[in-house]
Automatic annotation (TrEMBL):
<comment type="similarity">
    <text>Belongs to the MurCDEF family.</text>
</comment>
<dbReference type="InterPro" id="IPR005762">
    <property type="entry name" value="MurD"/>
</dbReference>
<feature type="domain" description="Mur ligase central">
    <location>
        <begin position="117"/>
        <end position="289"/>
    </location>
</feature>
<dbReference type="InterPro" id="IPR036615">
    <property type="entry name" value="Mur_ligase_C_dom_sf"/>
</dbReference>
<dbReference type="Pfam" id="PF08245">
    <property type="entry name" value="Mur_ligase_M"/>
</dbReference>
<keyword id="KW-0133">Cell shape</keyword>
<protein>
    <recommendedName>
        <fullName>UDP-N-acetylmuramoylalanine--D-glutamate ligase</fullName>
        <ecNumber>6.3.2.9</ecNumber>
    </recommendedName>
</protein>
<keyword id="KW-0963">Cytoplasm</keyword>
<feature type="binding site">
    <location>
        <begin position="119"/>
        <end position="125"/>
    </location>
    <ligand>
        <name>ATP</name>
    </ligand>
</feature>
<dbReference type="GO" id="GO:0008764">
    <property type="term" value="F:UDP-N-acetylmuramoylalanine-D-glutamate ligase activity"/>
</dbReference>
<keyword id="KW-0067">ATP-binding</keyword>
<dbReference type="InterPro" id="IPR004101">
    <property type="entry name" value="Mur_ligase_C"/>
</dbReference>
<keyword id="KW-0547">Nucleotide-binding</keyword>
<dbReference type="Pfam" id="PF21799">
    <property type="entry name" value="MurD-like_N"/>
</dbReference>
<keyword id="KW-0436">Ligase</keyword>
<dbReference type="InterPro" id="IPR013221">
    <property type="entry name" value="Mur_ligase_cen"/>
</dbReference>
<dbReference type="InterPro" id="IPR036565">
    <property type="entry name" value="Mur-like_cat_sf"/>
</dbReference>
């Protein structure tokens, strides 16, 4: 067994959020020298980390100075890896890695399977569903990564033992990953997101392709031009589509919306507990990933109908006067909101807005055309969204989410849906997307109990 690349090295872990601290915890048990770095480390946070990692020095101030004697810089996903100090460190021979790269070196020493999932939208649903299918099929399954459990915490908690690791990976994690060899991996889609961290959409898309290192099966979206370009020569590729016959596809010409594999009928969309066409695609991707590691289809199809989905992803929270209220607070970019709109069949009152992260909001125009009853806008970038829309329905600026919920219901008709799918981050008005969801649910309860 080869010696790990970090053994006997001086390592600086930069960015001390959950992933950064998981790296500190991991490295303190290894044969190396470790420091934790964060530019702005509060006394409270310093004390919390010191309690978990008592033998590790925590530093702040100039990153360039901290890196002078370092061999490896281990960056957390939230730490911008393209800043000049990091580039200079790499240029003089320093190695820049993330927690997923460290995990990749560990898992390569085992016989475990790895299923890796990324994309602008849907990755949390696909990761959770894939993990559910693997676990219910009898495999020792660990789900980790961007979904909430840092990969190194998952590794340590399970002592490196699993039949299959199901990983949700963000572009930030993939930026610093070079040797992950997944048994099967997918890029679900590419839409504008995180353009404050990338040069352009192609730059962002390229970061996603790091998930395809190695020789595993590629599962790719036949309806997405950027995903079409990711198919690699001499690799097994499985295509999924909502538009045309493919390896895995939904026949949208049939009113029952059958899910198919080639010519084989699998299920009808109505058989799934998940709502919306985009979730039918998510189910097909999970099926493709599981079949790629040898799980039999006959056992997987009944399991697909049992998975009920995730909180805050196109989740029905209730009905009032025959109007459906749907929580998609986790729809934090334009692509996610477009997918939610396209997946629902009834007229919609959309509640959107928040921190736009430099996105182009114009795709919302086509997604809302002939489907929107009204659009209620909240948050810092409400004006930018309004400027992108030319609709023959009311577009209303609201002071709060509570007001948007009340005014949206007033404009809805029986059979409509009031959909919270903000296309934006939440931190201008809320702690996070879950808090935004809580406020929406409370607003619905007040409305329906009045």
């Amino acid at each position: 067994m080869s010696k790990p690349s970090w053994q006997n090295k001086h390592i600086v872990v930069a960015g001390l959020g959950s992933s950064g601290v998981s790296m500190l915890r991991f490295f303190q048990s290894q044969e190396c020298t470790v420091q934790g770095y964060d530019a702005k480390l509060s006394a409270e946070r310093r004390a919390e980390i010191a309690a978990q990692c008592p033998d590790i020095e925590l530093v702040d101030g100039s990153l360039a100075q901290v890196l002078q004697d370092a061999d490896i810089l281990a960056v957390s996903p939230g730490f911008p890896s393209r800043q000049p100090e990091v580039q200079a460190f790499a240029a003089r021979g320093g190695k820049v890695v993330g927690d997923v790269e460290i995990f990749a070196q560990l898992v390569a020493q085992t016989d475990a399977k790895v299923l890796a999932i990324t994309g602008s939208n849907g990755k949390t649903t696909v990761t959770s569903l894939t993990g559910f299918l693997c676990e219910q099929s009898g495999l020792k399954t660990v789900v980790a990564g961007n979904i909430g459990l840092p990969v190194l915490d998952a590794w340590m908690q399970n002592q490196g033992q699993a039949d299959v690791w199901v990983l949700e990976l963000s572009s930030f994690q993939l930026d610093t990953t070079s040797s992950l060899q997944a048994s099967a991996a997918t890029v679900l889609n590419i839409s504008e997101d995180h353009l404050d961290r990338y040069d352009d959409l192609l730059d962002y898309a390229h970061s996603k392709t790091h998930i395809f290192t190695g020789s595993g099966v590629q599962v790719l979206n036949a309806d997405d031009a950027l995903c079409l370009a990711m198919a690699r020569p001499n690799r097994e590729v499985k295509w999924f589509s909502l538009q045309k016959p493919s390896d895995y596809w939904v026949d949208v010409q049939d009113a029952t919306l059958p899910l198919k594999a080639g010519e084989d009928m699998l299920l009808k969309a109505q058989d799934l507990a998940l709502t919306g066409l985009h979730n039918a695609a998510n189910a097909l991707v999970a099926l493709a990933l599981c079949e790629a590691i040898g799980l039999p289809r006959a056992g997987l199809l009944p399991l697909l109908t049992q998975f009920k989905g995730l909180p805050h992803r196109v989740e029905t929270i209730g009905f009032y006067q025959d109007v459906q209220f749907i929580d998609d607070s986790k729809g934090t970019n334009v692509g996610a909101t477009c997918a939610a709109l396209q997946g629902l069949q009834q007229p919609i009152v959309l509640i959107a807005g928040g921190l736009g992260k430099g996105q182009d909001f114009s795709p919302l125009q086509d997604a809302l055309l002939h489907k929107a009853r009204a659009v209620m806008l909240i948050g810092r970038d409400a004006a930018h969204i309004e400027a992108a829309l030319q609709l023959d329905v009311p577009v209303v600026r609201c002071e709060s989410l509570e007001a948007a919920t009340q005014q949206g219901f007033a404009l809805a008709q029986a059979g409509d849906a009031v959909l919270l799918s903000p296309a934006c981050a939440s931190m201008d008005m809320f702690r996070d997307y879950a808090h935004r969801s809580e406020v929406f649910i409370e607003a619905f309860k007040e409305l329906s109990q009045a």
